[in-house]
TrEMBL record:
Coiled coil: none annotated. It comes from the Bacteria. It comes from Cryobacterium arcticum. One of its GO terms (molecular function) is transmembrane transporter activity. Residues 10-25 have a biased composition (Polar residues). Residues 1-25 are annotated as: Disordered. It holds the Pfam family BPD_transp_2. The chain crosses the membrane at residues 38-61, 73-99, 106-133, 184-214, 243-264, 300-319. This is Sugar ABC transporter permease.
Length: 355
């Protein structure tokens, strides 16, 4: 039998009681302001990302004043739109405790498909057809993982090669179609709405929808639960297989939208160019944004900040004349740093070191 010891609380004297009564409550007059609301959305854990962005902006801006021009800021915004879409949906997959390495290949396949369907029919059917193909690719990924009982990394690594091969087969390895004269694709690539490029609006809309899904719906809570503890989630009645397939289908759809944007920017369907390496950028941004690769943790706000940081770094290195090969080295190094930081924060025993 255990005995619970209660801690006695001293009774305040008359003088101390009067003093306490004379002092205003600690939170009187402290109403949640704009700063607190923004901080609640961004997250305290993302302050380090904001500080890193400020530092990088200051360093690059001091070396090249052209960095702060409106034209260059537009370039950064439009450049991160496509990788940002894939990073947002990759974050959801990682929160669920999985990974999708095939998103870049799906974007390439749907880029070619949208251009070829557009040439035969029109822009609307081209976009809808591309999204349908992307959803089928995501469905195939989910079915391989669920019914084939294949690790998500191995499954999507295989489909990464397969989807890239299909894109090259149907396009004969060349760019297909020409969308540079179509009003809809031109609006996607170079149009503006309220002074903001359309590409950025697409990213903002998808990011807001993903944020609302994860934070304010039961579906989002279940995704966190599945990533945090799949056994407990199954015992709680969550249909894990349905969530895995659903998330991968959604991933394919968003990757298809990214493919359509690639087609709009380049004016033609690109089987590889424009989509190769996007999976690495998406995973890097999600990890930098705080998404735990073991699942159950991550935010869309953190991912967007990481996407902005990567975009600024890439643009800054280009302005400063850094070799593009070194840019790839920097992205790989950032991914390693992000994973190491996650491992240190988790407090788990490092592999190869004594416990």
């Amino acid at each position: 039998m255990s005995v619970r010891l209660e801690r006695s609380t001293p009774v305040p004297t008359t003088q101390s009681t009067a003093t306490l009564q004379s002092q205003p409550p600690l939170d009187s007059g402290l109403r949640p302001g704009v700063f607190r609301r923004v901080l609640g959305i961004v997250g305290v854990q993302n302050i380090s990302l904001l500080m890193a962005i400020a530092l990088v902006v200051a360093v690059i801006g001091s070396q090249n004043p052209l960095f702060f021009t409106v034209g260059n800021l537009r370039v950064i915004g439009t450049a991160i739109a496509i990788s940002g879409l894939l990073a947002v949906v990759q974050t959801i997959v990682i929160i669920m405790g999985a990974l999708d390495i095939s998103v870049g290949s799906i974007a390439g396949l749907t880029s070619v498909s949208s251009a070829m369907i557009f040439t035969a029919t029109g822009p609307f059917i081209g976009v809808v057809g591309a999204i349908g193909i992307g959803m089928l690719c995501g469905l195939l990924n989910g079915c391989i993982i669920v019914f084939g009982r294949v690790n998500p990394v191995i499954a999507t690594l295989a489909t990464l090669a397969a989807y890239k091969g299909v894109a090259q087969l149907i396009s004969d390895g060349r760019a297909q179609g020409y969308t540079g004269a179509d009003g809809f694709f031109v609006f996607l690539a170079r149009g503006t709405l309220l002074g903001v490029p359309t590409l950025i609006w697409v990213l903002v809309i998808i990011a807001v929808l993903a944020h609302v899904l994860l934070r304010y719906t039961s579906v989002g809570r279940n995704i966190y639960a599945v990533g945090g503890n799949d056994i407990a989630s199954r015992l709680a009645g969550i249909n894990i297989n349905r969530y895995i397939i659903g998330v991968y289908v959604a991933t394919g759809a968003i990757a298809a939208i990214a493919g359509v944007l690639i087609t709009a920017r380049t004016g033609s369907g690109q089987p590889v160019s424009g989509s190769e390496g996007l999976e690495l950028e998406a995973i890097t941004a999600a990890a930098l944004g705080g998404a735990a690769l073991k699942g159950g943790k991550g935010t869309i706000a953190g991912t967007i900040l990481a996407v902005i940081l990567l975009g600024i770094l890439t643009n800054g290195m280009t302005l400063l004349g850094v070799n593009s090969f070194w840019q790839n080295v920097a992205k790989g190094a950032l991914l390693i740093v992000a994973v190491v930081i996650q491992q240190l924060r988790s407090g788990e025993r490092r592999i190869g070191l004594p416990g």
